[in-house]
Specification:
Elements: H1 12-15, H2 18-73, H3 76-84, E1 95-101, E2 107-110, H4 116-134, E3 142-143, E4 149-151, E5 157-163, E6 166-178, E7 184-194, H5 197-207, E8 210-215, E9 225-229, E10 236-241, H6 245-287, H7 298-315, E11 320-327, H8 329-355, E12 361-366, E13 369-374, H9 380-393, E14 398-400, E15 403-405, E16 408-415, H10 423-439, E17 445-447, H11 452-471, E18 476-484, E19 490-501, E20 505-507, H12 509-518, H13 522-537, E21 544-548, H14 551-555, H15 559-570, E22 577-581, H16 583-588, H17 590-603, E23 606-612, H18 619-624, E24 629-632, H19 634-639, H20 644-659, E25 663-666, H21 672-681, E26 685-687, H22 700-706
Parallel strand pairs: 16-17, 19-21, 21-22, 22-23, 23-24, 24-25, 25-26
Antiparallel strand pairs: 1-2, 1-7, 3-4, 4-6, 5-6, 6-7, 8-10, 9-10, 11-13, 11-16, 12-13, 14-15, 18-19, 18-26, 19-20
Helix pairs in contact: 2-5, 2-6, 8-9, 13-15
The structure holds ligand C2E and calcium ion (2 copies).
Length: about 725
């Protein structure tokens, strides 16, 4: 068996369980948080390390400057040459300077003229140096190689300062020495060098960072890290291009996690798709099976037909489609209940199955309808053989609850080689042929032919038009007189529905009532007739109103309620209403029918059994149900003249009715001679063309007034049956 996924199923995502979606989202959120956290903490710790390295590199530079200054001071020759050198103009190049630390405290500079902003920066360190050197040389004095020269390294200072647009690094160390003239001098040796690219590069190499800048004012920078470096009260702002190992790590991590996530999602999607496909297949299997017989249902059958169409297109073979429907199955259901009906369906399905060749497909469409796909046929003859086998298989009775039951079957057949390969069209054709088999008298098979098309279309149109006619109040009700047999006085009328289609003219009630019953229109139609009849007959005092009730209508759950409502709405007296039921109504569900009949009688409504003698003729029901009247079917009345046998039937039926205390009405009285006989047999009432054809409501008041019923014959009947 092959199953297909139903078309139009929703996208996978919408079918994923909420739990999975939630879990995936949670994992994603956690991943993002984890990545952000690891990146930030990685970057932060790297920043701390770089800052510490830069700080120590800057310290190192300052220390180097001081050291170089000390070394310089310790070399009197260079010291002397320095002493005598001309002041430097260019602050961008490396220089030494010498500043007098005079006793009076005013720093005089020898060597280069120091600019004011530098002097401001140096004011404090110079003051410290002056104090240290005047306080009889505290601290460790580094003795120079040169006698009479003392350097005080502990009191040296270093820092950064901006001279014009140039940043310089400086260091100064107090020195005492003996000048050439023997005079003891106290000075500070100043060494300075420009913070230029070479300086910064050195710094960067030492601190193992890249792109370092130093400035005396904080420079706004988004992608540089910076910190304040302070030495000798001269703060500078150090910026560098940070190493961001957190970024790198998080990039690598997110690449890894994304791959894992993709794999995970892929796996889950694959798994879910498979699970879905499996459950779809299960559903399809369940949806494709008929629960009662275990056969394929219509859905699966259509799939088989589609497959077969494809196959035969490839290999040029032919197949046939059979539609089957049991004859009068409803009566079995009505007689034996639905359980009995189900048993018959199962047994009959087995028999049909046994008639098939290997490979042929049987399906139950529902109710008592079946379909067969007959494969690889070469001619009509193959179909005929199978159809005959099936018809024959039905000839033996079925056993239902110990009773023998016979059932016929009608079959419609169409061949794939005849003009169409469209599944819908093929099935429609088989259905149409089946319909024809039913019309031709059932228990037979019929092949589809093109001539059937128009008939089906007519049926369909008729149904649509009837629907419209009921809605638009286009139907009419005619009334046929019923007379008492003795005096032949009008005692009642039977309401008979009429439909004249604008296009087709008058349509026989039997035809459109059957359609209404089959297509679920009968309840509306019946209600409409009842209401119209009650409205009309309200104005006809003293006579009864008989209204036909179809079995489908009677079984409808709202039947009683509808009757009550109509009586109430129209104000028609219930004891003048007579409902004509057929035998099939009462035998369908005896208990339910009995309950409804009891309730109707309690309301005062009378009940007649119509067409008596034509149906199952279950005399028992006559006793069981509180029926008021039987109407002997007109076929018996009309055959009465043909043979004495028929006359005897009518006499016996009338006799039976009288004995049971029922009113007996004879239908279809057409001839004068029939009256005497029917009166003789004991019929109470007569109805037939002899007393009047069905008339429009306008004719009835005159009829009542004149009392001369037979005169109505001359009145123009609206429609002869
Ligand atoms: P029915 O209930 O047996 O109604 C009597 C039928 O016999 C009517 O046919 C009537 O015109 C016809 N008839 C009356 N006297 C004679 C006669 O002397 N000779 C002949 N040959 N025929 C006669 P109609 O009106 O065509 O109705 C046919 C059937 O349609 C009715 O049979 C009834 O079963 C059904 N029907 C008609 N109106 C309604 C309705 O409103 N509701 C339901 N459920 N069925 C209806
Ligand atoms: Ca009737
Ligand atoms: Ca009848």
């Amino acid at each position: 068996m092959r199953f297909r996924l139903r078309k139009g199923h929703s996208p996978l995502v919408s079918r994923l369980p909420a739990r999975f979606v939630a879990a995936t989202c949670l994992i994603l959120v956690c991943m993002v948080i984890l990545l952000a956290w690891s990146r930030e903490s990685g970057n932060a710790s790297a920043r701390d390390v770089e800052e510490a390295r830069l700080e120590s590199a800057l310290n190192g530079q300052s220390n180097r400057l001081i050291l170089e200054t000390i070394n310089q001071a310790a070399k009197p020759r260079s010291f002397n040459s320095l002493n005598s050198s001309a002041p430097a103009e260019d602050w961008a190049t490396e220089r030494f300077g010498i500043i007098e630390l005079a006793n009076d405290g005013n720093g005089l500079s020898a060597g280069p003229e120091l600019p004011a902003d530098l002097m401001t920066t140096l004011a404090q360190p110079l003051e410290r140096a002056r104090q240290a050197i005047s306080q009889s040389l505290r601290g460790s004095i580094r003795e120079s190689q040169e006698p009479n020269t003392q350097v005080l390294p502990e009191f040296g200072s270093s820092g950064y300062s901006k001279i014009g647009s140039h940043l310089i690094a400086w260091a100064l160390v107090p020195v005492r020495y003996q000048a050439g003239n023997g005079e003891a001098r106290k000075v500070a040796i100043l060494r300075y060098e420009p913070v230029d690219t070479a300086f910064l590069a050195r710094l960067a190499v030492e601190a193992k960072t890249s792109f370092v800048t130093i400035d005396t004012t904080p420079g706004p920078s988004t992608n540089l890290n910076s910190f304040t470096y302070s030495r000798a009260n001269t703060p500078v702002y150090v910026s560098w291009k940070p190493d961001r190992p957190g970024d790198r790590m998080s990039n690598v991590l997110s690449a890894i996690l994304t791959s894992i996530m993709a794999l995970y999602t892929g796996f889950v999607a694959f798994y879910m798709t498979r699970r879905l496909a499996e459950s779809e297949t299960d559903n399809a299997r369940l949806a494709a099976q008929d629960t009662l017989t275990g056969l394929a249902n219509r859905l699966l059958f259509t799939i088989h037909v589609d497959d077969e169409i494809v196959r035969t297109k490839r290999n040029g073979a032919s197949f046939a489609l059979f539609y089957l429907d049991f004859d009068r199955f409803k009566e079995v259901n009505d007689t034996f209940g639905h359980d009995g009906g189900d048993k018959l369906i199962v047994s009959a399905a087995r028999r049909i199955e046994q008639s098939l060749r290997h490979g042929d497909r049987l399906a139950r469409f529902g109710g008592d309808e079946f379909g067969i796909l007959q494969l690889d046929i070469t001619s009509f003859h193959d179909c005929e053989v199978l159809a005959e086998r099936i018809l024959n298989s039905m000839r033996e009775p079925f056993d239902i609850n110990g009773q023998k039951v016979y059932i016929g079957i009608s079959i419609g057949i169409t061949l794939s080689s005849r003009g169409t390969q469209d599944r819908g069209e093929l099935m429609r054709r088989a259905d149409l042929a089946l319909y024809r088999a039913k019309n031709q008298g059932r228990a037979r098979f019929v092949f589809f032919d093109e001539a059937m098309n128009s008939e089906l279309q007519r049926q369909k149109r008729l149904e649509d038009e009837l629907r419209q006619a009921i809605k638009n109040d286009e139907l009419e009700v005619n009334y046929q007189p019923i007379v008492t047999s003795g005096t032949q006085k009008l005692c009642g009328v039977e309401a008979l529905v009429r439909w004249t289609s604008p296009e087709r003219g008058a349509i026989h009630p039997q035809e459109f009532i059957t359609i209404a019953e089959e297509r679920g229109l009968i309840v509306d139609l019946g209600n409409w007739v009842l209401r119209r009849a009650c409205e009309d007959a309200r104005h006809w005092p003293g006579i009864k109103l008989a209204v036909n009730v179809s079995a489908v209508q009677f079984r409808h759950k709202d039947f009683l309620e509808n009757i009550k409502q109509t009586l109430q709405a129209t104000g028609f007296p219930p004891n003048r209403l007579e409902l004509e039921l057929t035998e099939s109504v009462v035998i369908a569900d005896a208990d339910q029918a009995e309950a409804a009949i009891i309730e109707l009688r309690a309301m005062g409504v009378r009940l007649a059994l119509d067409d008596f003698g034509t149906g199952f003729s279950s005399l028992i029901y006559l006793r069981r149900f509180a029926i008021d009247k039987i109407k002997i079917d007109r076929s018996f009345v009309q055959m009465m003249e043909l043979s004495n046998e028929n006359a005897e039937i009518v006499r016996n039926v009338a006799d039976l009715g009288r004995r049971l205390g029922l009113t007996v009405t004879a239908e279809g009285v057409e001839h004068e001679e029939q009256i005497a006989r029917l009166v003789n047999f004991g019929c109470h009432e007569l109805q037939g063309y002899l007393f009047g054809k069905p008339l429009t409501n306008l004719h009835i008041p005159a009829l009542i007034a004149s009392g001369k019923v037979r005169a109505s014959l001359e009145l123009k009947g609206t429609l002869a049956a």
